[in-house]
Amino acid sequence: MPHFRLETNVSKSKVTPELLKKISAAVAKTLGKPESYVVVTIVPDQLMTWGGDDKPCGTATLMSIGCLGVEQNKKHAAVLYPLLKKELGIPDDRLYITFSDQSSSNVGYTGTTFQTILG
Hints:
The chain is α/β, with parallel strands linked by helices.
C-alpha cells in the first residue's frame, strides 16, 4: 500500500532498476511495512524549475496507510532525502516531500479495499 512517487527534472538515464529497488527497500524499512506492498514511481525528465533555475529538483509524495505523523515523517525524511541526494543529485533544499496518510477504506487492492483485507 505504500507508494513513493517522485517527479523530477533529473534525466531518465539516472533512474535505474537498482535505484528503484534501493528506494523500495528504504520505504519499506522506514515505514515498517512489507516490501511486497511498496510501489515506487519516478517520473524523470520533467520540465521543472526551482527558484527560477533548472538545477536538479523535484516534488514527491509518500502515501501510506498509517505509519505517518509528526515524528514519523521526520524519520522518513531523514531516510529519503540523503538517498535521493546521493543517487539523483537532488539537494535537500530543492525537494518537497508531501506525506499522505490514507485510511484503509480509501486504498483499493485486489478488487476490494485494505479495510476489508486488514479488518
